[in-house]
Specification:
The complex is a heterodimer of chains A (450) and B (246). Chain A is of the alpha+beta class and 450 residues long. Helices cover 54% and strands 16% of the residues of chain A. In chain A, the strands form 2 sheets. Chain A has a 6-stranded mixed β-barrel with strand order 2-3-8-5-7-6. A two-stranded antiparallel sheet of chain A has the order 9-10. The two termini of chain A are 26 Å apart. Chain B contains 7 helices and 10 strands. In chain B, helix 3 crosses helix 4, helix 4 crosses helix 5 and helix 5 packs parallel to helix 6. In chain B, the strands form 2 sheets. Chain B has a 6-stranded mixed β-sheet with strand order 6-7-8-3-9-10, with helices on both faces. Chain B has a 4-stranded antiparallel β-sheet with strand order 2-1-4-5, with helices on one face. With 246 residues, chain B is of the alpha/beta class. Classes of the chains: A alpha+beta (450), B alpha/beta (246). Chains A and B meet through helix 1, helix 12, helix 13 and helix 15 of A and helix 2 and helix 3 of B. The complex binds adenosine-5'-triphosphate and magnesium ion (MG). Adenosine-5'-triphosphate (ATP) binds next to strand 1, strand 2 and helix 1 of chain B.
Chain lengths: 450, 246
């Protein structure tokens, strides 16, 4: 008996018990649907995360952050100047394994304004290397230069969200050359960053501008400090304002009034970021920087490194965990589906003992009966798997609507094939026991049965 | 040349402590082209004997030769092959598969013989025509009368051109008129050269076959040729039976 014939016999058997077969398949359908949806969800999450990780500067980006000095240095820790421009200069001069470095002095909530429009966003005083380290790209105008830094020019480069806020009535306005106020000080805009968004955001935006082309999308209300729309991974990045760190010092950090008393110039850095030249020599690069900074900090270990390795690892781990737990849930439901198939096949065999006897009498071998039952349960798995795929396409459409945009599920063909094969394999496995039982029936007893 | 040869065949069943001797030393030889009836009271071992002859079962001891093949020690797969190619069964309760059409029921033995679908169809139709049901090939068994169902079963038994056809009480579920028609069909097949062994407990039926083998308590007690039956079959003395064990 060939397999194709067994397949047809199986189909016929399933069709003659449509409702029962459907109930049997339900477990498989749910299992496949949840498996594939879960695969697609985690694929979407992973996608969103990786894009985000790319955009914020990869693993090469390392922050130098302060830490409590060790206890044996506590008494004289004040001899360290902390993080200063000198650190950045020393690293730039001596750290051969570091490709870029920038000191950062920030205004956590600067008021950026033009005319009557204003926008509250952080502003960073930086070196030009800030741009490549943070994977920024210039779309219009120019980036900051060393000349700007050395001569402490009042110039700035702004993100497109800033432009949109300051010139809300003028879509795609070119801000280069305009003079804006940062905390009341005039700065000339010399460049503008590209607009950062996820693949998904871009597609959605293109779709909505196509469908509602003439009607302008709702304008954000004047002066709102955060975006009008939902959270986006790149909202912060698009709201960036950078200026030469020297200009930052001269304009905003020369006096620091605390409790009505001027504390003098505040020239310590808020952040110090480096970019490791070669990931393969990551640890050596950090060692190099540590040696340099121990000199500039007079031996006080009041700094450490904030690598993203752990962060990225934990993201990857999180994705893996989600996938695993989702997989376990889907697996359980597939298992339950499989048990259902076994159960129904056993019932179906009992119903057909006489038939099996007849088939044996006319020459079917035990093996033929085995294949017939196995094919039947595989066909249940096959159809259940197919219906499960359809169901999960439906589920995905709903998930797309309700999940955060950058984590929108991504349907990958290998996952479709994987989920489907799972269903067929479960169908096959759950048929083995009933098939074995059927093939072991004694022909004479089977003929006499009923 | 005998197509069936049984020597000192015993079949014992063990039910708990008790041993049931279903066949108690059978010697039997049936020739190609014979038409024989096995007759005996209920529980005498007729069906058990037929299962051995039909390769559905193997004896506890003794030798069963079918077409020169020793099947007393054959494994299950070999028995299946023997049944498929050498033997056709007709049962009292027809044993057709209700979900399949007449045509598909008759095709069944050929499926396990690996016959191509086109040839299957041709041969099945020819076989159905032979039993006079050409116009019912597309029906399902449940749409047929008992006599018609038994004809389908006979068509199925014939379709692989077997050496022997075994029929266990083939008229048991039919009224006497329909039963007579089925017996007439067997007679016709016999005249066309088929070897047929019929199991019955009805003397009237056994009287119509050229050879009558009577068994009782698992032993052959009589084996003779009907002088009245105008059918082929050579006169031959009763096969000597071994002494029974007890
Ligand atoms: N599988 C079995 N297990 C135990 N005993 C059995 C089995 N099969 C048959 N027997 C016994 O063997 C004996 C012969 O049975 P068999 O079915 O051959 O009788 P029979 O002549 O066909 O009777 P009937 O005319 O009622 O069909 C009976 O006593 C029966 O109980
Ligand atoms: Mg019987």
């Amino acid at each position: 008996m060939n397999l194709w014939f067994g397949f047809l016999v199986g189909l016929k058997e399933i069709w003659s018990h449509k409702f029962r077969s459907f109930l049997t398949m339900l477990g498989i359908i749910l299992g496949v649907a949840s498996l594939l949806s879960m695969f697609s969800l985690t694929a979407g999450m992973a996608n969103g995360m990786r894009q985000y990780m790319q955009q914020v500067g990869g693993i090469e980006r390392v922050g130098v952050i302060p830490q409590e000095p060790p206890t044996d240095q506590e008494g004289f820790a004040e001899i360290s100047p902390g993080r200063t421009i000198a650190d950045a200069e020393a690293i730039a001069r001596s750290a051969t394994l570091v490709s870029a470095v920038t000191p950062i002095s920030e205004l956590a909530a600067a008021t950026v304004s033009f005319g009557s429009q204003y926008f509250r966003t952080p502003a960073y005083g930086v070196w030009p290397d800030y741009v490549p380290i943070n994977s920024h790209e210039i779309s219009r105008g120019r980036s900051l230069t060393w000349l700007d830094v050395e001569s402490a020019q009042n110039v700035c480069v702004i993100g497109q969200r800033v432009t949109q806020r300051l010139w809300p009535d003028r879509p795609r306005f070119n801000p280069v050359g305009e003079s804006i106020l940062i905390n009341g000080r005039p700065f000339k805009v010399v460049g503008e960053f590209t607009f950062y968004e996820t693949e998904w955001d871009r597609r959605q935006r293109e779709l909505s501008t196509k469908s509602a082309a003439p009607a302008r999308t709702k304008r954000p209300t004047k002066g709102s400090s955060s975006s009008g729309r939902g959270y986006s991974a790149f909202e912060r990045k698009n709201s960036t304002v950078i200026l030469p760190i020297t200009a930052m010092f001269y304009n905003f950090k020369m006096a620091n009034v605390v409790k009505n008393e001027d504390q003098g110039p505040q020239l310590k850095l808020d952040a110090l970021t480096i970019q490791v030249a070669d990931i393969a020599r990551f640890d050596q690069a950090l060692e190099q920087v540590r040696t340099i900074l121990e000199a500039t900090h007079r031996g006080i270990e009041d700094f450490t490194f904030d690598t993203r390795q752990e962060w990225f690892d934990s993201i990857e781990q999180g994705i893996r965990n989600t996938r695993l737990s989702g997989g376990i849930i889907a697996g359980i439901s597939l298992l339950v589906g499989g048990i259902g198939i076994t159960n129904i096949m056993l019932a179906s065999i009992t119903e057909r003992i006489r038939e099996i006897g007849v088939r044996r009498a006319v020459g079917a071998k035990g093996r033929d009966i085995f294949i017939q039952i196995l094919v039947e349960s595989a066909v249940i798995g096959l159809i259940g798997g197919f219906l499960g795929l359809i169901a999960s396409f439906g589920i995905m459409r709903i998930l797309v609507l309700i999940s955060p945009t950058e984590n929108a599920p991504v349907l990958q063909w290998e996952n479709v094939i994987l989920s489907f094969s799972f269903a067929v394999i479960i169908g096959l496995l759950s048929g083995i026991y009933p098939a074995l039982k059927a093939s072991k029936l004694d022909p004479i007893e089977a003929l006499r049965y009923g | 040349m005998p197509i069936i040869e049984l020597t000192d065949v015993f079949k014992r069943y063990r039910v708990g402590e008790q041993e049931i001797v279903a066949l108690n030393g059978i010697n039997l030889s049936i020739d190609q082209g014979e038409y024989a009836a096995i007759i005996g009271p209920s529980g005498s071992g007729k069906s058990t004997l037929m299962h051995l002859l039909g390769c559905l079962d193997t004896p506890t001891s003794g030798r069963v030769l079918i077409q020169g093949n020793d099947v007393s020690t054959a494994d299950a797969n070999r028995l299946s092959e023997m049944r498929n190619s050498h033997i056709g069964f007709v049962f009292q309760s027809f044993n057709l598969l209700p979900k399949l059409s007449v045509l598909q029921n008759v095709e069944l033995p050929m499926i396990y013989a690996g016959v191509s679908s086109r040839e299957r169809r041709e041969r099945a139709l020819a076989s159905i025509e032979r039993v006079g049901l050409a116009d019912r090939a597309g029906n399902t068994p449940l749409q047929l009368s008992g006599g018609q169902m038994q004809r389908v079963a006979i068509a199925r038994a014939l379709v692989n051109s077997p050496r022997i056809i075994f029929a266990d009480e083939p008229t048991g579920n039919l009224d006497s008129k329909t039963g007579a028609a089925i017996l007439a069909l067997f007679r016709e097949l016999s005249q066309q050269g088929s070897t047929i062994v019929l199991v019955t407990h009805d003397d009237k039926i056994a009287a119509q076959t050229p050879r009558r083998i009577e068994i009782k308590d698992g032993r052959i007690v009589q084996d003779f040729f009907n002088p009245d039956a105008d059918l082929p079959g050579t006169a031959r003395p009763l096969t000597p039976q071994p002494t029974p064990t007890s």
